[in-house]
Structure formats: structure tokens, C-alpha cells
Amino acid sequence: ETREIAMQKCKIAAETLNGPCITEDTSLCFNAMNGLPGPYIKWFLKSLGHDGLNKMLAGFNDTSAYALCTFGYCEGPGHEPIIFEGKTPGKIVPSRGPTNFGWDSIFQPDGYEQTQLCGIRRWYQKQNLTSFKSFG
Hey, what's the signal peptide range on this chain (predicted)? Predict the structure, then answer.
């Protein structure tokens, strides 16, 4: 579903701009919930807050998750967007530290002891942009 949302977002942007465009979308996916909230994380966070997101996983033994960054590129109206994805595995933890980006205080990337997604997010965005550069 994330890819479909990214494709639609990119198509609409290309039509609105009447030209080429790049779009970006970020999702937070819980493995125990088959990828939810995914691209709907903004609305889940707004309705439930950080504590509520943690409570969603209370009935599961699995708190693993992944952050998914999706870039779309479209040459313009009438062209199909091309999608590039970057995935960062981690786990959901109780909220800690400052919240600089929506849900970053509850997502701890694998290999880290802190919720430092902002730096990691930039890393996988860069990986996606490198893929995009290779494409062109």
C-alpha cells in the first residue's frame, strides 16, 4: 500500500506542477501488526500519541518495526512514477529524548542504544537518492 500511495502522490504532484517532480513519504511499520500503521503513522500518532502507539503493541511479544522512506520520481503528467525505497529496521520503545520528527522518540534503529532516527533517516534518504542518481 505504501508504494501505491507514493505513486499517487507523485502523479498528483507532476500534474499540479505540470512537469517533473520528486516526492518523499515516510512510514513507520510494526512487524507484529503486518506493517501497520505504515503510511498512516501521522494519523495514528495524532490520535494516540507516543504512549498510545506503545500500547498498541502491548499484547504482542514482537516490538520490532521498520522505518520506510519512499521517494517517487515522475517525468511529468502522463508518465508513470518510479519508486525508490529505503528501509531501516529497529524496534518500538517507550518515548525518550526529544521529538524532532513525529515518532522518532519511540523508534530505536537496530544497532543503536538511542532513538536517533533523524540521523539514520538522512542516511537511508541518501541511499534512495543515490539509487535515483544511478537511475538517471
Answer: none
Q: Which residues contact 130 (CB under 8 A, 6 or more apart)?
A: none
**Is the per-residue pLDDT at 42 higher than 90?**
yes
Distance CA 22, CA 41 (A): 21
The SS3 call for residue 117 is helix
Cα–Cα nearest to 86, from 125, 38, 112, 117: 125
> pTM for the whole thing?
0.81
| CA–CA separation, 30 and 90 (whole Å) | 10
Residue 34: the pLDDT is 96
- Determine the structural domain holding residue 40 and report its residue range: 2-135
Number of domains in the chain: 1
